[in-house]
């Protein structure tokens, strides 16, 4: 069988995974990454990405790899010259100097406030915007490759480049469908990684889309909830969803149709913050006696919400009084699940089909109790993929190439099991009160609240 490699460049590590045509994971390696945070600034050194890529491939049997694809955090980019050498640090997705998480505002910030050499290089066409995967592919192939359309979305590409006049056209890369062969590994790339010369390099995806591929959520009506530090929901629709609130945005599906989604600022991190270093298994067992919890909690970590509603001034709140730590813990888990339920109500109200397979991925799935609780709150079966790493999604992208990504994922992605919701909707009444509390604070409109309370 052929061996395919997926590369996932995250904030804290770079991961390589090897899989065969049937999706069997053959090997994997992880190399840590560091960054620089200083107030609103968050940067990484692209040279460290390159070093980590070499170390990770040297830790697996790279000589067997037929093709590879790379994903990175959405909105992260750098500027490089025609030789592929980085001329700026990588501005990370959450670098806040431009006040907006998308890459295009960051590029405009560099045009206005960057070093003089950078501004001059952009103006005279010597510097080009490169997303994380683009830069590593440049170095692997020895040439300046095209980017993919999911990575380019936050840089201003939506079926074509649509950028303000102050952004030079020469700074914008060519854009292709994910999976397209954009080059082959050259001599220098092979020497650095151990990959064979001539190994195909395929256009990649953002990390969120890669996780969706790894979950196999690629048919219309399928959705994937990723509950890690934050909650990210992504799915598939035949037509593009129009969301006047701006909470939902859509990538183009490589096979046609759309990949809409949104990212909330609630997530598993709030549980880590409020219950550090505790025995989670014991708390899970204790939480089962508090269904529903004695109070409601909207579990934001910091000010601001992005999905299922957009309110930069939103803050966490608690309604009622908890009986103790187990009750408070249960309330946090239920609060995140209530936000997830509201996310799907918002999507259905926009016209999305959410009736397909719903998969759960992310670090929170390590808690079997929380996964079952979420199935109960959502009132529907949830499937748990056997391998949830975005790097597997990228191996699938490489294996599919310019062919049918959905069919390739169906062959390569396996499920570990399905959780059926328990009978009854014992969370319906507290969920309704939770939504009413959001309405009372002006975070949610009455129309969405009424719709969300209706049976799905």
UniProtKB/TrEMBL annotation:
<feature type="domain" description="Carbohydrate kinase FGGY N-terminal">
    <location>
        <begin position="4"/>
        <end position="99"/>
    </location>
</feature>
<keyword id="KW-0119">Carbohydrate metabolism</keyword>
<keyword id="KW-0808">Transferase</keyword>
<keyword id="KW-0418">Kinase</keyword>
<dbReference type="GO" id="GO:0016301">
    <property type="term" value="F:kinase activity"/>
</dbReference>
<dbReference type="InterPro" id="IPR018484">
    <property type="entry name" value="FGGY_N"/>
</dbReference>
<keyword id="KW-0859">Xylose metabolism</keyword>
<comment type="similarity">
    <text>Belongs to the FGGY kinase family.</text>
</comment>
<dbReference type="InterPro" id="IPR000577">
    <property type="entry name" value="Carb_kinase_FGGY"/>
</dbReference>
<dbReference type="InterPro" id="IPR018485">
    <property type="entry name" value="FGGY_C"/>
</dbReference>
<dbReference type="Pfam" id="PF00370">
    <property type="entry name" value="FGGY_N"/>
</dbReference>
<dbReference type="InterPro" id="IPR050406">
    <property type="entry name" value="FGGY_Carb_Kinase"/>
</dbReference>
<dbReference type="Pfam" id="PF02782">
    <property type="entry name" value="FGGY_C"/>
</dbReference>
<protein>
    <submittedName>
        <fullName>Carbohydrate kinase</fullName>
    </submittedName>
</protein>
<feature type="domain" description="Carbohydrate kinase FGGY C-terminal">
    <location>
        <begin position="225"/>
        <end position="400"/>
    </location>
</feature>
<dbReference type="InterPro" id="IPR043129">
    <property type="entry name" value="ATPase_NBD"/>
</dbReference>
């Amino acid at each position: 069988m052929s061996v395919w490699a997926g590369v996932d460049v995250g904030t804290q590590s770079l991961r390589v995974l090897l899989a065969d045509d049937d999706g069997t994971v053959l090997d994997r390696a992880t190399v840590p990454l560091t960054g620089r945070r200083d107030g609103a600034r968050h940067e990484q050194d692209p040279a460290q990405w390159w070093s980590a890529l070499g170390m990770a491939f040297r830790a697996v049997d790279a000589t067997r790899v037929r093709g590879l694809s790379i994903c990175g955090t959405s909105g992260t980019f750098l500027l490089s010259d025609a030789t592929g050498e980085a001329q700026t640090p990588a501005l990370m997705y959450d670098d806040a100097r431009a006040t907006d998480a998308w890459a295009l505002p960051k590029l405009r910030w560099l045009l206005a406030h960057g070093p003089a050499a950078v501004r001059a290089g952009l103006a005279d066409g010597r510097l080009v915007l490169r997303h994380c995967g683009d830069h590593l592919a440049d170095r692997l192939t020895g040439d300046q490759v095209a980017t993919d359309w999911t990575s380019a979305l936050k840089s201003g590409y939506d079926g074509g480049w649509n950028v303000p006049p102050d952004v030079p056209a020469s700074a914008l890369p060519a854009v292709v469908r994910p999976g397209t062969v954009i080059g082959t590994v050259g001599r220098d790339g092979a020497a650095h990684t151990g990959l064979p010369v001539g190994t195909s390099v395929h256009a990649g995806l953002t990390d969120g889309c890669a996780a969706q591929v790894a979950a196999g959520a690629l048919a219309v009506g399928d959705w994937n909830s990723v509950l890690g530090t934050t909650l990210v929901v992504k799915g598939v629709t035949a037509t593009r969803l129009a969301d006047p609130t701006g909470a939902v945005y859509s990538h183009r599906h490589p096979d046609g149709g759309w990949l809409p989604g949104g990212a909330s600022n609630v997530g598993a991190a709030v549980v880590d913050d409020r219950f550090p270093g505790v025995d989670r298994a014991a708390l899970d067992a204790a939480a089962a006696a508090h269904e529903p919890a004695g109070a409601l909690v909207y579990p934001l970590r910091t000010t601001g919400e992005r999905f299922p509603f957009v309110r930069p001034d939103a803050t966490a709140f608690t309604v009622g009084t908890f009986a103790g730590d187990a009750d408070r813990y249960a309330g946090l888990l239920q609060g995140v699940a209530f936000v997830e339920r509201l996310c799907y109500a918002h999507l259905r109200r926009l016209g999305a089909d959410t009736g397909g397979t719903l998969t759960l991925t992310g670090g929170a799935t390590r808690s079997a109790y929380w996964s079952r609780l979420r199935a109960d709150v959502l009132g529907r079966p949830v499937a748990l993929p056997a391998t949830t790493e975005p790097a597997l999604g990228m191996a699938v992208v490489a294996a599919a190439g310019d062919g049918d990504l959905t069919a390739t994922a169906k062959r390569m992605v396996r499920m570990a099991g399905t959780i059926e919701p328990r009978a009854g909707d014992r969370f319906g009444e507290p969920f309704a009160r939770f939504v009413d509390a959001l309405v009372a604070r002006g975070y949610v409109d009455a129309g969405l609240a009424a719709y969300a309370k209706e049976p799905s």
